Structure of Aspartyl/glutamyl-tRNA(Asn/Gln) amidotransferase subunit B:
Amino acid sequence: MSTTMSETQQFETVVGLEVHVELQTNSKIFCGCKTNFGAPPNTNVCPICLGHPGTLPVLNKGAVDLAIRAAVALNCRINQDCKFDRKNYFYPDLPKGYQISQFDQPIGEHGYVEIDVNGERKRIGIVRVHLEEDAGKSMHAADGTHTLVDYNRTGVPLIEIVSEPDIRSPEEARLYLEAIKSIMQYCEISDCRMEEGSLRCDANISLRPVGAAEFGQKTEVKNMNSFRNVQKALECEVERQTAILASGGRVTQETRRFDEATQTTVSMRSKEEAHDYRYFPEPDLVRLNIDDAWLNRIRASLPELPLQKRDRYVTEYQLPAYDAGVLTADHATAAYFEAVVAAGADPKTASNWVMGEVLGYLNAQNLEVSQSPVTAERLAGLIREVASGKISLKQGREVFKAMCETGKDAPTLIAELGMEQISDESALAAMVEEAIANNPKSVEDYLGGKEKALGALVGQIMKASKGKANPGVVNKLLVERLKAMQ
Ligand SMILES: [Zn+2]
């Protein structure tokens, strides 16, 4: 292990990511076919997206809207006058024999995304954001005898986000992807479901001696279907390339894929054949003109972005950066938290409940925040009961569980479960007297200087009250009464 560590330290990791994001439009980019995931194979198709001769594409303005939104949210310069190009290649899932994409004039260029790495804010450059159509999906039979093609995905609008090689570790790659996903969800550009393919990622990774200006030979890694796997695959590549370089070898240019079963990367094809896609301007579409009014309307419609929200939670609610990061990672969670605070809860208390009980329950049940059985208002109601001392925090957690299971609110359940904490001093005074009378040994010990004996007396009262006595009040009353006996 120690040798691996020192070897790793001699090299710097350089990663660039290409992320494809499907836009959440109702219909495809050049025809009226639906885009819903999971439809029976080849049911969301028509002559246009199947590429029949003589058909013409009609651009979906909604897809352009979302692509501009993405480019603006990623701080890109917008090319207000741009065009579409044909990228020519043959593949069974591409019935036209070409993909309509953007070659030299993408919608957005020169943007950036900010991430927090070990408490430091870091900027990752974005080379370009361009709009294109998705291809279909080939499904290869496990026994290798045949392949089936589903064209439902053909023509679904897609943006490709290409990062600068600014990423310096597998962890930064994951943070960058989380930031992209979060921004896309906040701006309602895509649902970014990696398991459904609406967010896909390829990585270029190389190593170079620390301090070197030139990049090393890179490999491309594909087929990573979760953020965890992206990080894992890149960690494997760092290890593999480090071993090659440390032993004086050379990294070969190749495309590798992540094998989930073995948790390693394996070679797919070595020596990438030089692609010549013979790009040329798409003759069936006019140039895309984004006028100032259109662009300004989109700029004005963007919501507060995740990082701005995170910073605001730290300053406005005085939350720790960790809490702010967890709560703002997804906009539904942030909205839920803000609603709890708006309903009167203390921000840090609300944060503890949302990060602990709420997200814990939802994760265990595999539910989204929008499906939470406890509304923000009802959670605020429960927090109020605990804050007022009516029930203890421990009881509050039990009530929360019951709220999830029964759908009832906190006051109802507290009454039903007979949980009301006894804080009334006159009601507790009798119990204090009884405990003192029944436990002369503890009283004697306490008066003799053994402060621990107080705990035994408190315990008696908690037991006698079936846990309902407010321990703070009991403590105070006991001390007062015992002091009077001295
Ligand atoms: Zn169609």
Observations:
- The chain has a mean pLDDT of 92.
- The pocket of zinc ion is lined by residues 28, 31, 33, 45-46, 48-49, 155 (CB under 6 Å).
- The CA atoms of residues 186 and 256 lie 32 Å apart.
